[in-house]
Amino acid sequence: MPVTEATIETILERLHEHYPEATYELEWTTPEEMLVATTLAAQCTDERVNRVTRTLFKKYPNPKAWADAPLEDLEVDLKPTGFYRQKAKAVKALNQALVEKFDSKIPQDIKKLITVRGVARKTANVVLNCCFDIASGIIVDTHVARLSQRMGHSTRTKADQIERDLMKIIPQEAWTFWGPAMVLHGRYVCKAKAPNCAGCIFLDLCPRNGVTEAKPTSTTAPPKVVPKGGFVPRPGIPSPPATRKKPSQKPGKAAAGASGGAERSVAALTAAPSIDAWVERLGQEMDKPYFAKLMSFVDGQRAAETIFPPEDEVFTAFNLTPFEDVKVLVLGQDPYHDHNQAHGLSFSVKPGIKIPPSLRNIYKEYEEDTGLKAPSHGYLEDWAKRGVMMLNAVLTVQAHKPNSHKNQGWETFTDAVIRKLSDERQHVVFLLWGGYARKKKKLIDKKKHTIIESAHPSPLSARAGFFGSKPFSKINAALQAHGQDPIDWSLS
Ligand code: SF4
Fold it and tell me: Are 326 and 400 in contact (CB under 8 A)?
């Protein structure tokens, strides 16, 4: 089905009918604030970013204030948004660039804006489209990319190429609307898995490229149901919750990123990947429907129960060990489920907390293997900072209920993390303790990486192959065999 001018016109008419004023949910009063908010929204919900920026935009009222702030202060302030070390660096750097190169103002030219460190084309489009109504380009996130392929608007896979294809067929005056409206359509109707073609306003226009389900004979989507001024639910399209509007935003806009605390925002999806290599590599995974469902589950659990680790420590392993720095992956299963134990690193507990039995056994083997004296605490942050990523397969748990968050989606996410490391890094050492971790071997390319495995250090199995396994010296031998520095295992 050729994509003609008339087809695009019809699509636009229907988008305007059904998503009349699609826009974004992040709160901002100046374009410079929007740039910061967009950066912080990576791997974080808009809701949480807004909670944080409501205070921080007063504390740091302009780019100079952000640029001058000590990095350590920014890390503390940004901790609730996750990946805070990288975000602190990114926010400081981009504000320094704004101060030094652009007199503390966002340049209203995409060619200049993308020269700011950490600002990729998608982020630049969000800021220019949203804050200045400048049609600098079309925001292409995972939803827009998917719809572009299914609807035959592009056959490419890279966001920049898809954007170029779209810019050729969509009139420029519609660029700033196309992205947010298509995000809503992708989020609620044309989902990655099981697109609701029967409830789709584009059924008669869409070649449904790559969709394997049989084509419905007719659509249940009513032709026109949304009056100007608001998002009205209709079959196949759940209504987003009410959204906070900034005074500077037009009233009545539906927020493309506003699908509840569980979903990542458009801005999150379009945040500059250069802020952090983890964000770049996991962004698509976090766009998948299962991840939104998982976040909803965890949010619901937090509202009703005590959940560990605390919200801002769920991703500690990623914060402390950037993607490019991972030399070793130690895979655990489930966070500790007693108060004050779990802080986002497998096997580690916070300072002052009694050392759990498995870690006590790890320390016994550590002393035997390395000759070093084990510390009196169980806080393994130093290892994480030296390239030992200590990841659990499941990242949250309900208090006193081990494995209570298994099979909710975390395993899919952490499997993707292992695959990313296996596919995109060279010579990582994967330390797999116990049957559960050993099952992950199938995710690892053994030709490129080293797998060290043994029994689990738990008291139930430590004598069945963990004691004497010498993991610390084996890891260093494997690293050195591939020309890498060994890990300094000492703990202060
Ligand atoms: S018809 Fe199906 S594949 Fe095409 S846009 Fe609608 S939901 Fe997506």
Answer: no
For residue 196 and ligand 1, the question of a CB distance below 6 A is answered with: yes
**d(C-alpha 37, C-alpha 458), whole Å:** 43
Specify the 3-state DSSP secondary structure of 401: strand
Which of 193, 208, 213 to mutate for ligand 1's pocket (most ligand atoms within 8 Å of CB)?
208
Return the DSSP state at 23. Answer: B
Reported as a single tens digit per residue, the pLDDT across 406-420 is: 999 999 999 999 999
pTM of this prediction? 0.51
Is the pLDDT higher at 265 or at 284? 284
Distance 202 CA to ligand 1 centre (A): 6
Q: Which residue has the tokens 């740091």?
A: 60
Q: How far apart (Å, rounded) are the C-alpha atoms in residues 402 and 280?
A: 31
Three-state DSSP class for 141?
Answer: coil
Quote the CA–CA distance of 101 and 107 in Å, as a whole number. Answer: 9
**Is 144 a pocket residue for ligand 1 (Cβ < 6 Å)?**
no
Both tokens assigned to 404: 């209570």
C-alpha span between 389 and 43 (Å, rounded)? 18
Please say whether the beta carbons of 105 and 98 come within 8 A: yes
Question: Following DSSP, what letter does each residue of 271-337 receive, concatenated?
Answer: S-GGG-HHHHHHHHHHTSHHHHHHHHHHHHHHHHS-EES-GGGTTHHHHHS-GGG--EEEEESS---
Per DSSP, 391 falls in state E
Mean per-residue pLDDT over the chain, rounded: 84
